[in-house]
Amino acid sequence: QVQLVESGGGLAQAGGSLRLSCAASGIILSMNAINWYRQAPGKQRELVAGISSGGTNYADSVKGRFTISRDNAKNTMYLQMNSLKPEDTAVYYCNVFGWYAKRDYWGQGTQVTVSS
């Protein structure tokens, strides 16, 4: 059974940093596309960053501030968030597209709140 367990969310001040983690089991991250999404109240879920065969990509709103990475030995993916802004406040979700079952898998979500 595929499981994605997120951690690292919390409260930060504007200009501060947080690192989100997503530990995977039942699926090998290095063999699949991985992504981070976020969703603010009343808004659509937004793709923040991803790694696929085409390389690494970021939403314009986070480019230069956020970094997506993967530790293959730990089968864990990360989102390093620097220079945080209040508009980064959202629930953040890790995502993996599983080729075998041809479906998306999602973490439970972790709240990130940035105060001014």
The overall pLDDT average reads 97
The main pleated sheet reads as: 7 strands, mixed
Provide a count of the helices.
0
Overall spatial form: globular
What does it look like?
- The strands form 2 sheets. Strands 2, 4, 5, 6, 9, 10 and 11 form a 7-stranded mixed beta sheet that branches.
- Helices cover 0% and strands 57% of the residues.
- The protein starts with a strand and ends with a strand.
- The chain has 116 residues and is an all-beta fold.
- The mean pLDDT is 97.
- The protein is globular and about 45 Å long.
- Strand 4 and strand 5 form a beta hairpin.
Can you tag this structure with a few keywords?
mainly beta; 116 residues; globular; seven-stranded mixed beta sheet; four-stranded antiparallel beta sheet
Describe the structure in brief.
The protein has 116 residues and is mainly beta. The chain contains no helices and eleven strands. It has strands spanning 3-7, 10-13, 18-25, 33-39, 46-52, 55-58, 66-71, 76-81, 90-98, 103-106, 110-115.
Chain-wise SSE layout:
Blueprint (H helix, E strand, L loop, with lengths): L2 E5 L2 E4 L4 E8 L7 E7 L6 E7 L2 E4 L7 E6 L4 E6 L8 E9 L4 E4 L3 E6 L1
